[in-house]
Structure formats: C-alpha cells, structure tokens
Amino acid sequence: LSDPLKYSSHWSGGYSFDSRSCDVPVELIVSNLDQMFEINEMKNILFNVFCDHVMVLHISMSLQPDGS
C-alpha cells in the first residue's frame, strides 16, 4: 500500500513527552480491524502506521471466535 494512513484514524489531541519512558515496552491491542484486507497486508499497514512513531518489535494477529 502506498498510503496506509488513509486506512487509519488520527488522534488530534496533544501529548507530552517524557524522555525517561522511552525504553519502556508496551503491548498495544488493536481490535475491530477491516476484514477486507488479507492478514499479511493488515500487518504491513499496522507496521507502517506505528513505525513512524514507535519501534515495532512484533505484530501478531488472531481470529476471534466469530471469525473476525
């Protein structure tokens, strides 16, 4: 995808930066993803969206019991 950001929501609020928390890993769960994309394509979209802001170590995806 040439522009994965057009598929994402943008947060327009402000943020504060604390340099002491730069190396603290976090686990982020993203849900309610568009099912029209293949899994590998969605992983690529998520990676491209987040890597502009944070270091991405791993992306895993799983299907919910309802198949979504």
Automatic annotation (TrEMBL):
Taxon lineage: Eukaryota, Metazoa, Ecdysozoa, Arthropoda, Chelicerata
Full protein name: Limkain-b1
Natural source organism: Parasteatoda tepidariorum (Common house spider)
